Amino acid sequence: MAKDGKITMSDVAQLAGVSTMTVSNVINERVRVSEDARERVLAAIRESGYQINPSARNLRAGRSGVIGLAVPQVGNTYFGMMAELVIEEARRRGYHVAIEQTGALAAGEAAAIAQSRRLQLDGLILSAVEVDSLVPPVPVQGYPIVLMGEQDPAGRFDHITVPNEAGTAAATEHLIDQGCQRIAVVTGGNLDRLTMFTRRYNGYRTALEDRGLATDPRLRFMVDALSREGARSTGRRIAEAGLGIDGVVVFNDTVAMGVMRGLRDRGVSVPGDMRVIGFDDVPESASFIPSLSTVHPDHRWKAAKAVDLIISRIADPSSPPRQYTVPFEIVRRESTA
Amino acid sequence: MAKDGKITMSDVAQLAGVSTMTVSNVINERVRVSEDARERVLAAIRESGYQINPSARNLRAGRSGVIGLAVPQVGNTYFGMMAELVIEEARRRGYHVAIEQTGALAAGEAAAIAQSRRLQLDGLILSAVEVDSLVPPVPVQGYPIVLMGEQDPAGRFDHITVPNEAGTAAATEHLIDQGCQRIAVVTGGNLDRLTMFTRRYNGYRTALEDRGLATDPRLRFMVDALSREGARSTGRRIAEAGLGIDGVVVFNDTVAMGVMRGLRDRGVSVPGDMRVIGFDDVPESASFIPSLSTVHPDHRWKAAKAVDLIISRIADPSSPPRQYTVPFEIVRRESTA
DNA sequence: TTGTAGGCGTTATCAG
DNA sequence: CTGATAACGCCTACAA
Predict the structure, then answer these.
(1) Beta A293-297 vs A328-331: how paired, if at all?
(2) Does the beta-carbon distance from A54 to B120 stay under 8 Å?
(3) Residue B4 has pLDDT above 50, yes or no
(4) Same fold, A66-161+299-328 and A164-296
(5) Contact positions of strand C to protein Cβ (< 7 A)
(6) Minimum Cα–Cα distance from B87: chain A residue
(7) Domain B164-296 CATH class label
(8) Helix (H, G, I), strand (E, B) or coil at A70
(9) What mean pLDDT value characterizes chain A?
(10) What are the HTH lacI-type domain coordinates in residue numbering (chains A, B) (predicted)?
(11) B325 - beta bridge partners?
(12) Nearest CA in chain B to A50
């Protein structure tokens, strides 16, 4: 540090026998530089171990070089993983990431936006759950925000979303392909609003209809609580329902694992008696016993796209909002074997 | 942003009718400023919504304002949680945090150090596992590094460590207090070197000796693998050992949960037949079934101390290394009821 | 106690 | 194609 930190562009310029502007131009590839000068500069950089000083560059550019990432909880493995990927992708593009937590609450999300502005972060990637409440006086105007996860029905924001319907439909079809006939679904939240829960539930219904299977309202289970224990007790209810259930589509992996534990409490074996499939492919899913089949969205693609979106939004705040859907695939594991 | 970002110190100065230096002095509380001037400045700051520009400040100060945090894996809940706390504590002190991953490998740790220097981060908080390999040519010289987690036997680095011996001893004593007489221990790694495994194992032995219980080498189980499945099979072995075991001390929570699953595979009930206690108090431990008693180090204290250490190390690179141990308490939950 | 001058390292601008 | 100059916003040093 002591040494590295002291080497400046003018040191390099001197070494190469050119002006600092030429060094800058070589580094940033802005204007054409003669082959001769370019090579001398590159050699000087290599020799000296020069590293650009981000503070100076950012000062000059009038930006902070930091983007915010607001998620419900970093402790949660799903968001931990996403944070890790976003950090990597951002670094690759010369940005740092500052992490905020929202607790999945509307107030937390509003606070994250305010905080992000206050800290003069260049923009914010927001894993918003309560999109509908992102209206004034929440300070969303004139600040680069990209939503990651939920969609904005009003189309006001850039967003990148997982394929809720298509993914759940594919999961359901996978169960059908494996021979399941009476497929239950575990959902949650309020199905009157168009939330992630509703979308995933719709995917399940669509698949059943497409494949000519009857939809039976008794096969729809609301998760008892968004916790391991809540999911476990839901699993027990499914085991005791006595409806000939042979497959279960669950709206996310964490809950799916809880459901499997509940099934096992009641002596139901997975996949022997019932097959189970989740959504997200969180890290634990592969090592759970039995390992969990699931909808695997391309997490890195998602992170990279979110970073690209926020950077281009920062560059051009007035362009129309864009929407993207993450590619996905079904991962087949023991739980649906 | 457009607006906030444009307000500079001289805008504030003009508004308050003073010079920029007075504004700077008010903000940084460096020298005494008259009550009158101070109030006008504060009012101007409030009115204008002024925010200091970190790039300019850092450029001037010759630092980056970013510290690195290298952990084995952010996806891991324990490190996710620690990362979250370190980020918060750092922000509180005006620093950003850049996260690196080491994969718990010596090479990864060396790479994190090199990368951290290369990026000109002001310092690095390193959750090192392979401390012994932190020797040249690993570039540790003249760069502020604080170790978090493992100790440096050579005493070359600042470090902050969890109370391996004392914590495990207290855990073991808790089992004894609950009436356990034949207490097994689950450990791992290589007990010939003084690693976290060895220290925790020693804590267990010390407690048994202090309380006058016999130590029986057959009660020492090496975890089959550092994974859920590995721990599970270790749990089965414990269940089948037939040594009258009525308590198990496990070196961390994740493995403890795997062990409990293995015990259950063999019909051993926790805490009915055996009591189990872990170490770390990761987020899942409270919601596991049964909830896991464990050694709870003060995670926030640890994060705050690590940040304080690195900041003071940055300020004074030549002061002698300092060592701290995190305070802890035993959390009693269902698994030892 | 307050203000002035100058420079931290980079890059936009414009002249050469 | 290259270089001199000025400026980004802040703070140390010194002067008033």
Answers:
(1) antiparallel
(2) yes
(3) no
(4) yes
(5) 1-5, 7-13
(6) A99
(7) alpha beta
(8) strand
(9) 90
(10) 7-61
(11) B161
(12) B118
State yes or no: pLDDT of B29 exceeds 70.
yes
The answer to whether the beta carbon of residue B154 comes closer than 7 angstroms to any atom of strand C is no
Residues of A in contact with B103 (CB under 8 A): none
State residue A193's pLDDT score. Answer: 82
**A242 CB burial (10 A radius; 0-12, 13-18, 19+):** exposed
Q: Which of the two residues, B261 and A141, has the higher pLDDT score?
A: B261
Task: Return the residue of B nearest to A231 by Cα.
Answer: B287
Q: Give the residue extent of every domain in chain B.
A: 9-52, 66-161+299-328, 164-296
pLDDT of residue A223: 95
Cβ separation of A229 and B83 shorter than 8 Å? no
B74–A80 CB contact, under 8 Å: yes
Question: What is the CATH code for A66-161+299-328?
Answer: 3.40.50.2300
Shortest CA–C1' contact from A13: which nucleotide?
D3
User: What are A335's two structure tokens?
Assistant: 């739980």
**Helical ranges in chain B per DSSP H:** 9-16, 20-28, 35-48, 54-61, 77-92, 106-118, 164-177, 196-210, 228-240, 253-265, 299-315
Cα–Cα nearest to A311, from A297, A298, A299, A322: A322
Band of pLDDT at residue B1, cut at 50, 70 and 90: very low
Q: Calculate what percentage of chain A has a pLDDT beyond 70.
A: 98
Give the residue-averaged pLDDT of B156-162.
92
CA of A122 to C1' of D11 (A): 24
Is residue B5 predicted with pLDDT exceeding 60? Answer: no
Q: What is the pTM of this model?
A: 0.84
Q: Determine, for residues A81 and B91 on separate chains, whether the beta-carbon distance falls below 8 Å.
A: no
